[in-house]
Structures are given as structure tokens and as C-alpha cells.
From TrEMBL:
Residue intervals passing through the bilayer: 68-91, 98-121, 133-155, 176-201, 234-255
Presence of keyword Electron transport: no
CDD domains named among the record's database cross-references: TM_PBP2 (cd06261)
Alphabetized PROSITE patterns for the sequence: ABC_TM1
Keyword annotations: Cell membrane, Membrane, Transmembrane, Transmembrane helix, Transport
Gene3D superfamilies: MetI-like (1.10.3720.10)
Membrane topology designation: Multi-pass membrane protein
Keyword Repeat in annotation: no
Name of the protein in question: Carbohydrate ABC transporter permease
Sequence ranges assigned to domain ABC transmembrane type-1 in this UniProt record: 64-256
Annotated PANTHER family: ABC TRANSPORTER PERMEASE PROTEIN MG189-RELATED (PTHR43744:SF12), ABC TRANSPORTER PERMEASE PROTEIN MG189-RELATED-RELATED (PTHR43744)
Cellular location(s): Cell membrane
Family under the similarity heading: Belongs to the binding-protein-dependent transport system permease family.
Amino acid sequence: MIARKIVLAILGLLWLVPVYLLLANASKLPAEFGDYGLWEPGNIGALLTNMADAWDRGRLSQGIVSTAIYAVVSPIIAVLIGAAAGFAIVALRLRNGFFWFVVIFASTIFPLQMILMPLFVGYAETGLFNTRVGMILVYTVIATPFSAFVMRNFFTGIAHQVFEAAVMDGASTWRIFWRIYLPMSTSALVAIFILQATFIWNDLLLGLTLTQSSEIRPVITALSALQSTYGGSAMSTVLAGGLLVSLPTVILFLATQRAFSRGLSLGQF
């Protein structure tokens, strides 16, 4: 038991090393960056200054608004579509349901890099390039297969007698799905939403390929512009910007963890 705790403590410290290096180097003013060693920390004032500089130079406010829209709307739509697919396959016992499940999930076997060029051409020809609708659409499509995978597996754990009893009571299919199955799968829905929202928030590749203007591009894409040839930002400013844009996902994780812990203690999940 003691050896296990020691190993876990060492692994925890190793995991915190990159976090420390990020904080230590983000808290140094650009003019003084070369005067410090890699492991020497700066100060809070320099960190706040670098964050403000990154916020202004990278126009992160616009990127955060756009990314917040993408990271909320797309996972919600994907979760609902995935839940509906899982409900149809498991509860409604859709004909050849497993085949349709494989068809939905098979889209994940192709690397994203393989479809970037045709995706870019298609978006350019249809007018979806550099639009929020286009970004919401592509994020929804990417998130749906995983949502369907999780919800299909989750619904297999619900006895089919629940569906049959609801039908005997005169409930419609829509009412059974919306009032019985979705409330019973709250934990799975929230878990999928968090995973997909985090993926969308941290996405760089699709933002670089399908957006151009600062009003539409995701925040990670805006942050990457700080490191470009024309950005002209020092490394400490870029690191401070990275720390700044990572805070929402950390806050979301901590808030959700606290809510789940409270729900478990009350027996709600």
C-alpha cells in the first residue's frame, strides 16, 4: 500500500512538471525572458501583463466567443443525435440495427487529415467556408459517431421491460425517449458532452483549414497566430495565452466533478 502511494505521488509530480514549466515561463516579461533559467519562476505581475498582451495581440476575445458557441451547440446536437440513434437501435430494435451502428461508427476509422482537402473544397463550393454554421456542422458530424457508440452501449444496460411497460401505459415513442430514457442516462450524456466540448475547444486543425477571419476562427487557431512569422510575440506571451485559453476547460472539469460528487452523495446518479 505504501509503495503504491509513493509511485502515485511520483507520477503526480511528473505530471505537474509541464504545468510548472508553463507557469514559470509564462510569468516572465519578454524583455527579461533570456535573463531567467528555464526552471526559474517569474512573478504574478509579469504573468498578468503577458496574458493581457496575448489577449490583445491574438484577439482572443473573439475566438473565445466563437469557440464557446461551437463547444456548446455542437456537442448538444451530437449528444441528442447519438442518443436517438442508440435508442432506435436498442429500445426500438431497429431492423439490422447493428449494421446501422457500424455504419455510423465506421466514419471514425478514417484519420481527420485524410478528409481535410475534400472538406475544404466542399466548404468553399457551398459557401460554408469561414462561417459559424459550417464550423458547428463539421464539429457535430465528428462528435456524433462517438456519441452514438456510448449511448448505444449505455442503453443496452437498461432492461427492455422498461420500454414495454411504458408502451403498455400508453406512452408514445417520443415521450418514452424524452421522459424516461434521457433522464436515466444523464451521467452518460454529461460525460459525452464534456469530452466533445473539450475536443472542440482544443481543436486546431479544423480551425486552420475551414476558417480565416478572427470573428469565426476558434481560439486555439487565434492563439497559434501569435507564434507565426508575422505575430511577433515572445514565447512568454504565447505561453501566457495558452494558459489563459485553457482555463475554461479546467473550470468546466472541476465544476462537473463537483456536481457529480454532490449528485453521487445524494443518490441522484
